Amino acid sequence: MIKANGIEKFYGTEENRFQVLKGIDLQIADGDFAVILGASGSGKSTLLNVLSGLERPEAGTVIYASGSSEHHTDITKLSDSKLTEFRKKYIGFIFQQYYLLPNMNVDKNVKMGADLAGNKDYRAIIQAVGLGEKLHKYPSELSGGEQQRVSVARALAKKPKVLFLDEPTGALDEQMGRQVLDYICRLQKEYGFAVVMVTHNQNIAEMANTVIHMNSGRLSKLQSNTTIKNAYEIGW
What we know:
By secondary structure, the chain is α/β, with parallel strands linked by helices. The protein is 30% helix and 26% strand. The longest helix is centred in the C-terminal third of the chain and has 18 residues, at 174-191. It starts with a strand and ends in a 12-residue tail after the last strand.
């Protein structure tokens, strides 16, 4: 479980200083699928970055909790080196940009993530995202959807507890976008990790258990879906 309490985040200095997050309180359960919605500038990507440890808040705590209190970690109190180790061990990232290494083929790009967790069975993930026949292809030889699936496989090969996604379908057409979302959901059910996704596509919220609405740096509404749709049932 992720517990965020009193999160405040500022950017800029002196007269140009402005507040992006304004006292966010939030909980995301183990195995949850949470979608963060909001207009541009509402703070949703900043919230994602703070929850994942990519950015530090000026105030508040972000606690990763599992089981007894001995397994509670406040990532806002970790040193830079400890925070990096925490992210390597527990967190996966998928962004709108694929960030694949162009001089490495599919197998080696995914193996980079697997090596962080000592995962020697990473090729099962490549098979699961439908790229088993393209192990030796380089990013330039793949479509946009295939490249995004490589980034999905790389993130999951490290066996994260939480997968953070920032506009993962933003650069994809509808067909590829639906395919990528379908792969992510199927793998989540198989491996049990939590998903926290920022998106502009409000239809994707119909796939989530939890929908977090952001407005001007505040959590304006928290919604739980009773009916969950799959990637091919939502509008686009």
